Structure formats: structure tokens, C-alpha cells
């Protein structure tokens, strides 16, 4: 999908970056440690630096091996209403109690749904919990019932992340934990029934899970590998192409 790109000049003042845009176009992002910066790579879930081989694809995943060739270059991502709809949709999923804001309790409740499936090892469960705790504390500060993240704040955070060439490579590092939580037999592949658990944990409908799974199962073999799962999950946050099947990854998009 073709769309115009507005170039901007960034003036950094340590705490706030103001993107000076043409008249009537405003975009302000936070300079505090963004969402992805708090996610630490774990060796058990990543491929060696040389990349991801075919034989390894059922066991490992690289957080930085996917190509960005089909995406807008850093500095020009997140400019469409389509992208904003996707991020608002994801905020709505993280908002487990549906009060309009994200709290640390929402994070914990959502994580517990995946952990209670019983498929994560004790080690991966511990890593997953620590990852979410670190993410919250380093991005949004102390764990407190009064520390809440609005939709607009979340949009600003994600806009900052996807436009930083270093941070964006870790923005999807939580996805392998979700995959392993769904992978009942630890085969490195998930079936349609296992994928339905994904949408069940997200509070989404089974029929939407079927549509998303069959869209991602591009070769029609009845399974989705970790590599495919992470690829589409990553594209959900990055691409502004409305024809990409990754738009189904977190269920139906909000209208606005």
C-alpha cells in the first residue's frame, strides 16, 4: 500500500523528543527506556548470532534475524491509522480488566493464563515472569496500583520503539515464551487446537483463532512453527501494509 511519508527533524532534550513536523502535524514520543529496551535476550530462546538454520527452527528463534526489507525505514514507521488501530487493539488485549488503562496487575493476569496451561518449564516460567517485571519497572516505573498506562501513552511508546533500529529488534522478544506455553508436546510446532489456546488466553473468540491460524499456515501443513509465529507477531507491530496476514495475529482490529 502506497502512502506519503513526512520527514521530520528530531531535537532531543534527554527527557523528551519533539518531532518537529509540518504545520498541523504533531508527534511527541518519550525518551525514557522504551518497551523493547527492558526485554533481555535469553539463550534458550534465541538462535546463534550466525542466524537460524532449517534444522534448528523448531527449537530456537532469533530476535534480530528477520528482514526489514519490506518495511518502512526507521524514523518513518507508525504513520498510518492502520498501524494505530493495531496498537490500540494490542493495548485492549493487555488491558485484561477492561478499565481503559494497563496496570502491572493486567500484565500478571495475562501471563498467568499462559503459565497455567502447564507447558512452560520451570526455568522458562521464571524467565517469563522476570521479563515482564523488568519491562514494567524499567519502562513505567514502580509497581503500583496507581501506575497506569493509557492508550495514547502506549501509542507513543510503541512509536518510539519501532523507529529505533536497535530497540525494534527486541520488541517481540516475549513471543517465544507465548509459543512455548502453547506448544504442549514441545515439538516446535503448534496445531490449530493449540493455537486456539492462544486466543483463549487473550480473551478472544475461537472462530477468530481459526481464521488467524489458517492465514498463518501458509504451506497448509496444519502446523505453525515458532519461526512463523514470531515472524507474524513481529510484523503485527511493524508493518503498515494492510494486506499482510499478520493483522490477524491478535484477533480482529478495533475500528478506530
Description:
Helix 2 runs antiparallel to helix 3. With 256 residues, the protein is mainly α. It is globular, with a radius of gyration of 18 Å. The chain has eight helices and five strands. It has a three-stranded antiparallel beta sheet. Strands 4-5 form a two-stranded antiparallel sheet. Mean pLDDT is 77; it is low at 1-70. Strand 2 (16-20) and strand 3 form a beta hairpin.
Oligomer: single chain
Shape: globular
User: How can the largest sheet be summarized?
Assistant: 3 strands, antiparallel
- Measured between the Cα atoms of the first and last residue, the distance is 19 Å
Task: Estimate the helix proportion, in percent.
Answer: 25-40%
Q: Which range does the strand content fall in?
A: 5-15%
What characteristics describe this protein?
single chain, 256 residues, mainly alpha, three-stranded antiparallel beta sheet, two-stranded antiparallel ribbon, 8 helices, globular
